[in-house]
Amino acid sequence: MGTNEDKFKRVISHAKEYGFIFQSSEIYDGLSAVYDYAQNGVELKNNIRQYWWKSMVQMHDDIVGIDSAILMHPKTWKASGHVDAFNDPLIDNKDSKKRYRADVLVEDYCAKIENKIDKEILKAKKRFGEKFDKEQFVITNPRVVGYKEKISTILSRLGKSLENEDLEDVKNLIIELDIVCPIAGSKNWTDVKQFNLMFGTKLGASSDTATDLYLRPETAQGIFVNFLNVQKSGRMKIPFGIAQTGKAFRNEIVARQFIFRMREFEQMEMQFFVKPGTQNDWYQKWKDTRMKWHISLGMGEDNYRFHDHEKLAHYADAATDIEFKFPFGFKELEGVHSRTDFDLKQHQEFSGKKLQYFDHELNESYTPCVVETSIGLDRMFLAIFSNSLCEETLENNTTRTVLKIPSFLSTYKVAILPLVKKDGLSELARNIYNELKLEFNVTYDEKDAVGRRYRRQDAIGTPYCITIDHQTKEDSTITIRDRDTMVQDRIPLKGVENYIKDKVSFNSALSKML
Ligand code: ATP
Question: Which domains does the chain have, with CATH numbers?
Fold first, then answer.
């Protein structure tokens, strides 16, 4: 499907053309980095959220869910550190007038070196054939070792400078690495400045009494402030988790990658409260569990990797990203963070309310530590959507566009297609539709030739098409076509529900994680 850039453009245009994602307020030329989910997109998004909820909340007897408000008391964000430290370092190019995240410019530079490593590996693989030992190669080949050292030196300097707020050094690094503006091609950079990402708003009608609020930049704080409410009302014993999904808002500096980086997005987070001292074990466990969750989707293990953080946020004692291979390279999809007892202690201090857990077995109170898993629903959508979109050349040399979404997440599970509208086939098909819609999300289509209808369903990822033809009237059998293999089976109408059920339910994917 051409270059990765072409592929990404196709993803964006397919999402629009087939009713998955539209630019927000498009008739007014759109609002930058804000998107609407369309008729097909909302179903896929809901299914992803539901799959996450089922596996994280309902499959764990030690995790419960909540749904806290987007607006919170302003002190929350003082306590959490967001007012003072939720900043991104920005830099402008004076020629193009384009704004960049300084850390991302440096990271992209390193990604280019990574690409060189991949090329060396590919070359060596060709040269050595079957005998090729990748692990050995990457630790012994001098060129690859050199590249790796270079990346590590650059990233650790970036990490240190950001940690020490040494923005001058971040700029120096950009200059030293000869990083140019991708638009202007020049090195005419401004100084690096910090920029707070929170959106402000006001509560109250009169301007004198109105209170300044923020739209939450993460869902986590709604969980921390409710920690004791949930623990007490649910009689929860440590270790236990609280999960939620919901909107978060960030005034991102650079938002040019479709739904990868949005200003309004949705998070699916789980904060797991543990006894201090045990957080590292839980951190490892949640790293593992979350990777298994991703692998359960069947999109290929090679598309995921961990990226352990060099630079830790002010609240963390360990952190990793689960990265996914998007069309524009490996990028963060989910974060797993060991947040220590920072958040609860801060809220305790700022609210003056005790936020401790009384451990009956130890007969003592303590402030629990937190291990969190935090994933962007929209990024997950993009991962699935971009990975599933393919163009296939068929035996007769025609092509088809097919969205090979994991069946249990697809918008529709089945399409009901009468072969022709006449001879009572429409009525028969309608009856089947009415019966199956009780169980699955089903679509009905009787327009155009059946071949074209198959293509339309392929393009939106419907795993099964049921065709009702004249034989159906005679012997109550239908044909069922599989999206991926395009094989058609004739089966009794009676058995259809069970035939599909197994394949489109969460069960088989969920059981991979048990
Ligand atoms: P990044 O480094 O890409 O800005 P982050 O490290 O700030 O992300 P977290 O604060 O850890 O992200 O948020 C957890 C998850 O929320 C991320 O892994 C990502 O999937 C999602 N997320 C964060 N910011 C955005 C955004 N602007 N648009 C869409 N999803 C986002």
Answer: 50-77+215-387 (3.30.930.10), 87-196 (3.30.40.230), 394-511 (3.40.50.800)
